[in-house]
Amino acid sequence: MKVVRARHYVTGETWQLALDSDALASLTLMPPEDEGSIWLAPLLVDLQVNGLRGIDFLDPDITIAQIEKLAVSLQTDGVCHALPTVTTQSKDRISQALKQIARAKATSLECRETFPAIHLEGPYLSSEIGPRGAHPIEHIRPPSWDEFCHFQEAADGNIGLLTVAPEYDQSFKFIQRCCDSGVLVSIGHTAATGEQIARAVDAGATLSTHLGNGAHGSLPRHPNYLWDQLAEERLTAMIIADGHHLPDEFLRCVLRVKDHSRVIAVSDITGLGGMPPGRYPDTSLGDVEVLENGKLVVAGQRQYLAGAARPLWNAIPRLLASKTLSIPETWDIVSKNPGRLLGLVPEMIRHPKKLDAMVFEWNPSRVSSPDNDPISAFRLLHVIRNGIDLTTTNQSQA
Ligand SMILES: [Zn+2]
Question: How many A from CA of 387 to the centre of ligand 1?
Answer without folding.
Answer: 35
